[in-house]
Design goal:
The complex is a heterodimer of chains A (189) and B (160).
Chain A: H1 2-17, E1 26-31, E2 36-38, E3 44-46, E4 54-60, H2 67-80, H3 84-87, E5 90-96, H4 104-112, E6 119-121, H5 125-134, E7 139-142, E8 151-155, E9 157-161, E10 166-172, H6 177-186
Parallel strand pairs in A: 4-5, 5-6
Antiparallel strand pairs in A: 1-10, 2-3, 4-9, 7-8, 9-10
Chain B: H1 2-22, E1 27-34, E2 40-49, E3 55-61, E4 65-76, E5 96-102, E6 105-107, E7 111-115, E8 120-127, E9 136-143, E10 147-155
Parallel strand pairs in B: 1-10
Antiparallel strand pairs in B: 1-2, 2-7, 2-8, 3-6, 3-9, 4-5, 4-8, 9-10
Chain lengths: 189, 160
C-alpha cells in the first residue's frame, strides 16, 4: 500500500516536472544543445532565445535537389495545417551542411520558396562543427559531375524541440505528413 | 562483295525487328512534376513502357537550366553510427542520404519506373530562373529506342 502511494507520488511529481506528449515520431527527452548561428538575414539566431517557441531543425544544403526540398516542403505543408496561433509558435530552421556555397543570401532565397517564415542558418566552421556534433548531423562531401560540383551526403533526421528547450521527438525525412503534423501540433499545445 | 550481300539482308532483318519498338508511342510519361527551386531543381515522373522491348532513359535537357542529369538517391548507414552512443538513441542523425549520377534508367518491357523522392530523379543544374509554384517547365526526355519525348513539368509544393 505504501509502495503504491510512493509510486503514485513519484508519477505525479514526474508529470508536473516534465510535460507529457503523445508523439508519433521517435520520442526522446533531453536538453537541446544550444548554439548561435547566422540566419538568412545575417542576424544571430540563438536556440536558447527561442524559448516559448517550438523549434524544428533539419540539416541539409541548397544544392540538394531531392531530400532537402522534399523535407522542407513537407514541413511547410505540416505548418499550414496548424491553426494560425499555433503556427506562430513554430520556428522551422534549415541548417546548412555546405557553408562553402550556402551563404545567408542564398539560404534566404532557398528557404523562402517553401515558407516565408522559415529560417536558414549558417556560420563559420568553428560555429557549425559543434552543432553538427551535438546533433549527430552526419555529412560528407561526395564527388559530383563537372556540372553539379561536389554533392553532400547528409543525415536525414528532423529534430523537434519543445518550447521549453528540450529535444522531444525525432522524425525521418520521409515520415508521413500526418505524423509530422501531429507532432508539430502536439509540441505547441 | 559476297560478304556484303550476305550481311545486307541480315542487317535489314534486324532493322525490321527493331521497328516495332520505334513505331507508335510505346513510352508514356505521366505525372511529371517539380519542386520550387533556386539554382538546382528536380523533375519526377512515371515512365511506362507499353512496348515488348525494354527501353532506357539516356538523357534529359530543358531550356530552364544549363544541364540536366539523372541521379539516384540512396540511404546508407553512417559509419559513425553505432560506434558513437547517443542519448538521442540509435536513430540519432538518421540514415545518411546521398546520391549518385546514373547514365541510364531502364524501363522494362510492359513495365514502368517511378522517378520519385528518395529514388531516381532528374536533376536540373544551373537554373536560369527560380522555379515557382504554378510554373510549367518544358523537359525533353531522350530514350534509347523511343527517341525524344517532350513533356511539361508542373512546379508544385505538394507531391501530386
Amino acid at each position: 500500500m505504501r509502495i503504491c502511494a510512493i509510486g503514485a507520488l513519484a508519477l505525479l511529481t514526474a508529470c508536473s516536472a516534465a510535460r507529457q506528449y503523445s508523439l508519433a515520431g521517435n520520442a526522446v527527452d533531453m536538453p537541446a544543445s544550444d548554439f548561435t548561428l547566422t540566419d538568412q538575414d545575417g542576424k544571430h539566431f540563438t536556440l536558447s532565445q527561442q524559448r516559448g517557441k517550438e523549434v524544428i531543425l533539419f540539416f541539409g544544403y541548397t544544392h540538394c535537389p531531392d531530400v532537402c526540398p522534399t523535407t522542407l516542403a513537407a514541413l511547410a505543408a505540416a505548418l499550414q495545417k496548424l491553426a494560425p496561433e499555433q503556427r506562430a509558435r513554430v520556428r522551422v530552421a534549415f541548417v546548412t551542411v555546405d557553408p562553402q556555397r550556402d551563404d545567408a543570401a542564398t539560404l534566404r532565397r532557398y528557404v523562402r520558396i517553401f515558407n516565408p517564415t522559415f529560417y536558414g542558418l549558417t556560420g563559420t566552421e568553428a560555429q557549425l562543427d559543434p552543432v553538427y556534433a551535438a546533433y549527430h548531423a552526419w555529412h560528407q562531401k561526395l564527388p559530383g559531375s563537372p556540372a553539379t560540383g561536389y554533392l553532400v551526403a547528409h543525415g536525414s533526421t528532423i529534430y523537434f524541440i519543445a518550447p521549453d528547450g528540450r529535444l522531444r521527438v525525432l522524425h525521418d525525412w520521409h515520415d508521413s505528413l500526418r505524423s509530422l503534423t501531429h507532432d508539430m501540433k502536439e509540441l505547441t499545445k | 562483295m559476297m560478304r556484303w550481300t550476305s550481311i545486307g539482308p541480315a542487317a535489314l532483318g534486324l532493322l525490321f525487328c527493331a521497328l516495332p519498338a520505334n513505331a507508335g508511342q510505346t513510352i508514356v510519361v505521366t505525372g511529371v512534376w517539380s519542386r520550387p527551386a533556386i539554382g538546382t531543381g528536380v523533375v519526377y515522373a512515371k515512365i511506362r513502357n507499353d512496348g515488348s522491348a525494354a527501353d532506357d532513359l539516356i538523357g534529359v535537357d530543358s531550356p530552364v537550366c544549363k544541364t540536366a542529369e539523372m541521379h539516384e538517391s540512396t540511404a546508407s548507414m553512417p559509419s559513425a553510427m553505432g560506434s558513437m552512443p547517443s542519448p538521442m538513441g540509435s536513430m540519432a542523425g538518421g540514415m545518411m542520404m546521398g546520391m549518385h549520377q546514373v547514365q541510364a534508367i531502364s524501363v522494362p518491357a510492359h513495365g514502368s519506373v517511378q522517378l520519385q523522392p528518395g529514388g531516381y530523379h532528374i536533376m536540373l543544374i544551373g537554373l536560369f530562373r527560380d522555379l515557382k509554384p504554378g510554373d510549367k517547365i518544358p523537359v525533353s526526355l531522350h530514350f534509347r529506342h523511343a527517341g525524344t519525348i517532350e513533356v511539361n513539368s508542373n512546379v508544385t509544393t505538394t507531391s501530386p
